[in-house]
Amino acid sequence: MTLRLHDTLSGETRPLEPLTPGFVGIYSCGPTVYGPVHIGNFRSFLFADILVRYVRYRGLRVKWVMNVTDVDDKIIRGAAAAGVGIGELTERWTDRFLTDARILGMTDPDVVPKATEHIPQIVALIEELSRRGHAYRTDDGSIFYQISSWPGYGRLARLDPENMRVGERVESDEYGKDDVRDFALWKGPKRGEPSWSTEVGEGRPGWHIECSAMSMTHLGQTFDIHTGGVDLIFPHHEDEIAQSEAATGKEFVRTWLHCAFLQMAGRKMAKSAGNIARVDELLERGTPPRALRYALISVHYRMALAFSDESLAAAASAVERLDNVLAALDSYSEEREDDPSLDDVLANGRRSFEEALDDDLNVSGGLAAVFEVVRELNRRIGARSLSTADARRAADFLLDLDRVLGVMSAPTRKLESDVADLLEQRAAARAARDWAASDRLRGVLADHGIAVEDTRDGQRWRRVGEPSRA
RNA sequence: GGCGACGUGGUGAAGUGGCUUAACACGGAGGUCUGCAAAACCUCUACUCGGCGGUUCGAAUCCGCCCGUCGCCUCCA
Description:
Blueprint: E1 4-6, E2 13-15, E3 23-28, H1 39-57, E4 61-66, H2 73-82, H3 86-103, H4 119-131, E5 135-137, E6 143-145, E7 183-187, E8 196-198, E9 201-205, H5 207-219, E10 223-229, H6 233-248, E11 253-259, E12 262-264, E13 267-268, H7 279-284, H8 289-297, E14 305-307, H9 309-331, H10 342-358, H11 363-383, H12 388-405, H13 417-431, H14 435-447, E15 450-455, E16 458-463
Parallel strand pairs: 3-4, 3-10, 10-11, 12-14
Antiparallel strand pairs: 1-2, 5-6, 6-7, 7-9, 8-9, 12-13, 15-16
The structure holds one RNA strand.
């Protein structure tokens, strides 16, 4: 069994067959950094993260490239409004994006290219398109891609160019277009806007061209997987294909993966709709980061995901269940022979997990497999039928699957000295059967964010709301 | 107007022809364990998969129609 993925372009779900055996190149459309990224955006980044983690779990090497768009209309407007240069604005929000991503346990991409650092590559691509007759220049110094020169246009989005509704508004800088559907490769210089002096003239890159240039620069003219939200299918990815394939004459991307929307209050989460939630504000409200990650990854990526306070609370409880079993396994100790049936439980669990993830990254199914093992482990912990070594093996097993999920927390043995003191005092009180003191100390520890439980393996503690270990 | 996706319990959702008289998680009810609590475990919580027809020995799963929701065709993860 191998990983099968649903390709948007062909509409088929087919096995991942890397261009280079053992190596997968993945490009993910990242954020435009003009403000904080909301959790709807993060859903699509975390979906790519799961993909990367699972491909690596499967033993393949991955080069993951996620771009940052650091020059566009919104950035220019935002910088002007804030009275700062665009570099200052984009640096601030890029840092913030990467910080939030780490809080959510997202794997660091191998390369995070920026549009402004790829101007030569972008220009070279535009020149090639001009040479091949796919681009034309307008009076204001802009360069447009000529859609009519590319017969495959509309294939990805399944749109018939003839039937496309064309927006009524035609911006002044696009006035000279041959066809309103043509899109800008290069925008001519304007007062108050950043501009580069290049072989194709003064100006700045259009949006779509940067992703073609950056992905091909870092992954080659043809690469394995390109990801993004479904809203990028058209026009962004459609345009990327048109540009890239027209310029190289080669297939651009082997597999296109698109993540469905995160919905809140029955609508897609979008800045324009005003129904957005941000990482920092959720954290301020006391949301454990791993619970947020769980809430965003636990549903299949091609299904709309309903986000709400309730779904977040349910995710937090599920994550706690995982923490609890890991803590129980960690403190478990029993002098006895190994449980002969444990291997089967773990092997079956792993098989179910992999079958689900192989099936176009069915995370829900994978989680079901994990929780089935968790229940089985809890039974054995209660029955004291595991050996101490079994308990270690079981914990290692769960943490191994968590290389893909990134929602668990390995119990830490490290404690602040004051907390360690309190735990010792409580253990002493319990030994003396001083229940009043024991209960009081439990309350004090809770104030330190430490939950204490009494088990057959003695006092057990865990932190409430630990960050992801990823 | 064109194109597409989805509609499963109190909630979030797996499942896409027989293994499912529907997984997993959350929530709820009862019980076991425990000094108490928590955790955990056990039992129960959809005789049913938007509606109506059809195909089939057999359908939540395939087909048709209808209803509803969301989305794309414009910046958007």
